[in-house]
Amino acid sequence: MTRRHLTILQCNDTHGYLEAHPEVMWDGAEVRTEIMGGYARIQAVFREARAEHPGAVLAFDNGDTLHGTFAAVHSRGRDLIPLLNALEFDAMTAHWDFAYGPDRLRQLASELHYPVLAANATHKQSGAPAFPAFRVLERGGLRIGVIGIAAVVDKMMPPEHGKGLAFSFGEKELPVLIDQLRQQERVDLVVVLSHLGFPQDIKLASAVDGIDVLLSGHTHNRLHEPVRVNGAILIQSGCHGSFVGRLDLEVEAGRVMGCRHRLIALDQAVQPDREMQAQVEAVLAPHREMLQAVVGTTDRLLHRATCLSAPMDDFLLAAVARAPETGVAFSNGWRYGAPVPPGKVTMNDLWNIVPVNPAITTLEMTGEEIWTMMEENLESVFSPDPFKQMGGYVKRCFGVSLGVKIENPAGRRIQDCFVEGRLLDRSRRYRVAAITAQSVPAKFGTGRTDLSTDAVGAMRHYLRGSSTPAIGSERTVVAV
C-alpha cells in the first residue's frame, strides 16, 4: 500500500482579531505580553505549508471568527468574508458567529467559498438540519470526511443567537455520520471540527469510535502536544489568531501511521504576507482614527487570562458600577479579549474588552439570589461532567467576594460570601449593575432598568481624570 502525506492546519477562536496585537504569555507564574497574530501572519504560515506540500494541505477554522472586535461587530461579520476567502479554508464551524442570529450566519456562510458545518444543529420545529453536517475533500490522493460540531448555542448563549434552532453534543449524530462516510463515501480519514471545548471534546472522542483527527476549539487551550483519545488525535491552538496548529500525517490503508504536531506561535519571527496585510488595512482604515484615540492610561497589565478573577474585568466592573453608583456589579466570565499593557489605553482596547457593548442594567437582587446565581455559575464552569460545563471563566464580580471549594459538589462550593465588605445577608435586597443577559440571568432579580450608558462609554468615563485607576488587584473569587 502507498503511504501518503497530509498536512492539516487549524485556527480556532480568532475572535475577529485581524492584525497583530498584544497576547498574554507566561514566564512561570509571571504574566507578560508579546505582539502576536494577525491574518497576514496566518496567511504566511498557510502559504508556506501549501508550497511545501502542494495539493496535500487542508485548513480549518473552528469558529468564534466573525465576532469579537469593533471591525467584526460593526459590519456584523461582513468585512471579514473577503479575508477568510483569501485564507482558503476548507470548512469551519461556529459559536459567537451566531451572535447576529442564525439567518445572518447563513447569509454570511453563503458568501464564503467553503461551508459552515454543524451536524448537531437542527430546526426546532421540523428537526431538519440547519447547516450541512459534513464535507468530503480530496487531498494528496486521500479522501477525507470532515464533520462539524458547533457550540451548543441554545444552552449557553442569549436566546436570539440560536433562535429557532436546537443543538446537541453530537454523540448520537457522529456514529451515524462516521459510518456513512466510511461505508458510502469511502473516505480514508474522518476529521471532526468541533467548538464544544477541550473537556467536552475529550468526552466526545472517548464515546465515539472512528474519529482520526479531532480539531478542538472554544476553551483557548494551547496544546503543545496532541492528545490521543480512543484512536483520535486531538489538538487545540490557543486564541485570537496568535497560533496556528499544524498536523503532518502519514496515512496508509486508512490508518494514520505517523503524526508530527507543531503549535506555531505567530510572533515577530513570522513575516506577514504583504497582500493580506493590505487587505486587512483596507478593512480597518475607516475606523483607524476612532480606534487609535487615547482615552486614558493604566499602571498595570489588564488581562482576563485567569479563571477565577482577572484585572481586565476588575476594571470593566469598576466602571460599570460607577455609572449608576452601585456597590455591586456582575459581568460574564468571557475568555476572549486581547490584554492591555501598562501605558496608554485606546478606544480599540475598550472595544476589545466588550465588543458587544451592551447597555448597563440596574436591578435588585436578594442575597439568596446572589448566592444561588454564583453557585450555579461555579457548577457551569467546574462540573465534573464536561457536558454540563456551560460557562467561560467564573462570573466576574465587583463588590462581592467569595471563598470557594472548587472540588465540592454542585450547590456546595461557596464557603463564605461578602458583599461590600460584610457577610451576605440572604434576606436583604441589593441594588446591582450588570451588562448582558449572561451577567445576571433573567430568572434572577427584579426591577430591571436599562441605562443610557453603555459599557464602552462607562469605561471611557471612568478613565477620565484618573491616570492610574486603582483597579486590577481585587481577588473577588478565591479558591480556599
Describe the structure.
- The protein is α/β, with parallel strands linked by helices.
- It has 2 domains: 4-283, Metallo-dependent phosphatases (Purple Acid Phosphatase, chain A, domain 2), CATH 3.60.21; 293-479, Alpha-Beta Complex (5'-nucleotidase,  domain 2), CATH 3.90.780.
- The chain is 25% helix and 30% strand.
- Strands 7-8-10-11-13-12 form a 6-stranded mixed β-sheet, with helices on one face. The protein has a 5-stranded mixed β-sheet with strand order 5-4-1-14-15, with helices on one face. A 5-stranded mixed β-sheet has the order 20-17-24-19-25.
- The protein is globular and about 75 Å long.
CATH class of the largest domain, please? Alpha Beta
Structural class from helices and strands? alpha/beta
CATH superfamily of the largest domain: Metallo-dependent phosphatases
Q: How many discrete structural domains? A: 2
Please tell me the CATH architecture of the largest domain by its name.
4-Layer Sandwich
**Overall number of strands:** 26
Strand order of the largest sheet: 7-8-10-11-13-12
- Portion in helices: 25-40%
| Whole-angstrom Rg | 23 Å
Q: Low-confidence stretches at least 5 residues in length (pLDDT < 50)?
A: none
Quote the beta fraction.
25-35%
How large is the count of helical segments? 13
Q: What general outline do the C-alpha atoms trace? A: globular
Mean pLDDT, to the nearest integer, reads 96
Q: What is the fold-level CATH name, i.e. the topology of the largest domain?
A: Purple Acid Phosphatase, chain A, domain 2
Note the gap between the termini.
58 Å
Major β-sheet annotation: 6 strands, mixed
